[in-house]
From TrEMBL:
Gene3D superfamilies, A to Z: 1.10.8.50, MutM-like, N-terminal (3.20.190.10)
Pfam family, one: Fapy_DNA_glyco
PANTHER family: ENDONUCLEASE 8
EC id: 4.2.99.18
UniProt keyword list: DNA damage, DNA repair, DNA-binding, Glycosidase, Hydrolase, Lyase, Metal-binding, Multifunctional enzyme, Zinc, Zinc-finger
Domain Formamidopyrimidine-DNA glycosylase catalytic: 2-89
Catalytic activity: 2'-deoxyribonucleotide-(2'-deoxyribose 5'-phosphate)-2'-deoxyribonucleotide-DNA = a 3'-end 2'-deoxyribonucleotide-(2,3-dehydro-2,3-deoxyribose 5'-phosphate)-DNA + a 5'-end 5'-phospho-2'-deoxyribonucleoside-DNA + H(+)
Name of this protein: DNA-(apurinic or apyrimidinic site) lyase
Biological classification of the source: Bacteria, Bacillati, Actinomycetota, Actinomycetes, Micrococcales
Length: 295
DNA sequence: GCCCTATGTTAAA
DNA sequence: TTAACCTAGGGCT
C-alpha cells in the first residue's frame, strides 16, 4: 500500500538510525533465514529508494532489498535516536500517520519479543526494526541491484531521474494513461492514489490513450507527481488537495475527507465541478476519477 | 469468528 | 484476465 514516498522515508530512517551501526539480523518467521545469516553482524552503510524498492547497503558488499507490496510494513523502536518514525508501511487504520507521535519509553532496554510474522528483524545497539508482510525481501549484490534498477522507470523523487524516459514511454503506447502511470517500468513510485489524484489535478481522462497526451500534459503529470510525492515525503501522508480546497486545515492535519479529491470518494460530488466521482476496476485496481473535470 | 478490504506485483492460463 | 502471495484492521454476526 505504501507508494514511493513511504519508501523514501524508510531509506531516510535507515540512514538516520542504522547507518554505521553493526546489526544482528534474524528472521523470526524463518522465511528469510538464509539471507539474514548473510547480513548478520555486518555494518549498515547507505540506504536508498528507487520507486517502491528499498535498498539497504551493508559493508560486506551486499544489499537488503525490500518491496512492501500491499501488506508490508516496518516497525521501529529504540532509544531517543529512534524517535520519529514508529511505523512505515501499510496503514491499518483510517487517518493513521506514518510519523509516530507516540513517545517512546525513556529507557530502551532491547527489542520486544518478535511477532511470529516478522520476516526480518534488525537490531543495533540503539534500536530495532521489524519487517512484516513484504512481497520481496532478499539480499542482492551490487550488480544485482543495478539489474533491478535498470528495469525500473525514473523515480521523480530521485534527483538523477530522467523524465525523458517517462515522456518517451508515454508517447509510444496506446494503453490508457491511467494504466501506464501504474507501470513501474514507465515511472517508479506512483501508486493508486497518486495516479488518481494527479490525473484529476491535471484534468486528464484516465482512459485516454497515453500517446494522445500533449508534451505539456506529459510534463504536467511528471511534475505534479513529483510535487505530490515530495509532500508525501515531508508529511508522511498522501495529501493531494490544495490549501484552498481544505480551508483552515493544515496538510499535516487533513483527515481523509479533506486529503484527496477523488480517491475513495466515489458517489460524492466533485469539489470542483459537482459531478459525481466515479469508480471502476481497471487492470485489477480501482480507478477513481471525475467524469466532469477529466476529459 | 467470518468476511471484506487495502497506497502491489508476478506468474500462469 | 485470473490467481496467488503476503498481513492486519474493521465491521459484521
Amino acid at each position: 500500500m505504501p507508494e514511493g514516498h513511504s519508501i523514501h522515508r524508510l531509506a531516510r530512517q535507515f540512514n538516520d538510525v542504522f547507518a554505521g551501526q553493526t546489526v544482528e539480523v534474524t528472521s523470526p518467521q524463518g522465511r528469510f533465514s538464509a539471507g539474514a545469516q548473510l547480513l548478520d553482524g555486518a555494518r549498515v552503510g547507505d540506504s536508498f529508494a528507487h520507486g517502491k524498492h528499498l535498498f539497504v547497503g551493508f559493508d560486506n558488499g551486499l544489499y537488503l532489498n525490500v518491496h512492501l507490496g500491499i501488506y508490508g510494513a516496518w516497525t521501529f523502536g529504540g532509544d531517543e535516536q529512534f524517535q520519529g518514525a514508529s511505523s512505515i508501511g501499510a496503514p491499518r487504520r483510517v487517518g493513521e500517520r506514518e510519523l509516530g507521535a507516540d513517545v517512546q519509553p525513556a529507557a530502551y532496554t532491547g527489542p520486544p519479543a518478535p511477532k511470529a510474522t516478522v520476516r526480518a528483524r534488525l537490531v543495533s545497539e540503539h534500536g530495532w526494526a521489524d519487517l512484516v508482510g513484504p512481497t520481496v525481501c532478499r539480499t542482492l549484490t551490487v550488480d544485482e541491484v543495478a539489474q533491478v534498477r535498470a528495469k525500473l522507470g525514473p523515480d521523480p523523487l530521485n534527483d538523477d531521474a530522467d523524465p525523458t524516459a517517462f515522456f518517451t514511454a508515454v508517447s509510444k503506447t496506446s494503453r490508457p494513461i491511467g494504466v501506464v502511470l501504474m507501470d513501474q517500468k514507465v515511472i517508479s513510485g506512483v501508486g493508486n492514489i497518486f495516479r488518481a489524484e494527479s490525473l484529476f489535478r491535471q484534468k486528464i481522462d484516465p482512459l485516454r490513450p497515453a500517446k494522445s497526451l500533449s508534451a505539456e500534459e506529459q510534463r504536467g503529470l511528471w511534475e505534479d507527481n513529483k510535487h505530490l510525492l515530495k509532500i508525501g515525503v515531508r508529511v508522511g501522508r498522501i495529501i493531494t488537495t490544495e490549501p484552498q480546497d481544505r480551508p483552515g486545515i493544515a496538510e499535516t492535519e487533513a483527515w481523509p475527507e479533506h486529503a484527496n479529491y477523488v480517491y475513495h470518494r466515489q458517489g460524492q460530488p466533485c469539489p470542483r465541478c459537482g459531478s459525481t466521482i466515479a469508480v471502476d476496476e481497471i487492470a485489477g485496481r480501482k480507478l477513481y476519477w471525475c467524469p466532469g473535470c477529466q476529459v
